[in-house]
Specification:
Elements (H helix, E strand, L loop, with lengths): L14 H20 L9 E6 L8 E5 L13 E5 L16 H11 L3 E5 L2 H9 L5 E5 L15 E7 L5 H11 L6 E4 L3 E6 L2 H25 L1
Parallel strand pairs: 6-7
Antiparallel strand pairs: 1-2, 1-4, 2-3, 4-8, 5-6, 7-8
Protein name: Methylthioribulose-1-phosphate dehydratase
GO molecular function, one term: methylthioribulose 1-phosphate dehydratase activity
Family: Belongs to the aldolase class II family. MtnB subfamily.
Length: 221
């Protein structure tokens, strides 16, 4: 079967900027793969390339169906604000690219990381009917720049529809400026930040918080 080849052009983004973003994404992918956060080619990573404009922006994202434990020239491609490839390529963007598009458009962030782990799946399913995971009094809430004593936050949980565009339409209704993350029920976490460092910090904090809540629930039994 003939592969589809996208033929479009990316403008006004320096080669050095693209190279920097792709190298940084590759490093993050390698780190998360070592933690087994991409089982079965799951998960996706993206970073914005160039300036942010709600009407027109670009980001690099993991290509669909690739083994994320390997580092190859075909790991990433660059897409526009609609999730369409922005350079000539045979690669397909991740199936969940539209969710990344919405997060960038609504937050203006610099990076979005999405991983599947046992703890974020269990917690999202346990609290799925409530629509959010309540977190309170756990030290790593400070990772989100929330410093109040006994601070409390809620991480939104969205239904995991097969239609990704249906999920993307729900994102605006649940975003919270203080909580840089969204869970898909029995699926995984999306975490974001101003850059790759902050997105990684937020993702690691969420994973610690979910594991803490899970183990706390076990202790109550």
């Amino acid at each position: 079967m003939k592969k589809e080849c996208y033929k479009v052009s990316l403008v006004n983004i320096a080669t050095e900027e693209k190279r920097r973003v792709l190298e940084e994404l590759a490093d993050v992918k390698e780190l998360f793969a070592a933690r087994n956060w991409f089982p079965g080619t799951s998960g996706n990573l993206s970073m914005r390339v160039g300036e942010m404009d709600e009407e027109g922006f670009h980001f690099a994202i993991t290509a669909s169906g690739k083994d994320k434990t390997k580092r190859t020239p075909e790991d990433f491609l660059i897409v526009d604000q609609e999730g369409r490839p922005a350079e000539t390529t045979n690669l397909k963007p991740s199936a969940e690219t539209l969710i990344h598009c919405e997060i960038y458009r609504l937050t203006g962030c610099g990076a979005v990381f999405h991983v599947h782990t046992v703890f974020n799946n269990l917690i999202s399913e346990y609290y799925g009917d409530h629509g959010a995971v309540p977190l309170q009094g756990i030290e790593l809430i400070k990772a989100f720049n929330i410093w109040e004593e006994d601070a409390a936050i809620s991480v939104p949980v969205l239904p995991n529809y097969a239609d990704i565009s249906a999920i993307a339409k729900l994102v605006p209704g649940v975003l919270n400026g203080q909580v840089p993350g969204i869970l898909l029920r029995n699926h995984g976490i999306y975490a974001w930040g101003r850059d790759a460092f902050e997105a990684k910090k937020h993702l690691e904090a969420f994973e610690f918080l979910f594991e803490t809540v899970y183990r706390s629930l076990l202790l109550r039994k």
